[in-house]
Amino acid sequence: MSDEPRPEPTPAPGPEAGQDVLTGHPVVDEVLADLRDLGERPVAEHVEVFESAHERLRDALAGAGDGAADRPGPA
Predict the structure, then answer these.
(1) Which tops the pLDDT comparison, 67 or 14?
(2) What percent of the chain stands above pLDDT 90?
């Protein structure tokens, strides 16, 4: 074993600030857009947005694999 320190892993580059991230899944992309807009909404509305995001993502995950119609891509 070597006593040399391991180099720190380099994080993968992410999107630039303000840049839209698209996953290719319409529900996930809509949720991300809603979360991106949180800064423009009153703090009192944040819980409602988070709860809605959680429900929509949970429903999308529960339906994953139910059929090709749910997935983007060639038919």
Answers:
(1) 67
(2) 47
* Cβ–Cβ < 8 Å for 25, 72: yes
* pLDDT tens for each residue of 27-55: 999 999 999 999 999 999 999 999 999 99
Residues 34 and 57: their CA atoms lie apart, in Å, by 12
Q: What is the 3-state secondary structure (H, E, C) of 29-74?
A: HHHHHHHHHHHHCCHHHHHHHHHHHHHHHHHHHHCCCCCHHHCCCC
List all residues 6 or more positions away from 70 whose beta carbon is below 8 Å from its beta carbon: 63, 64
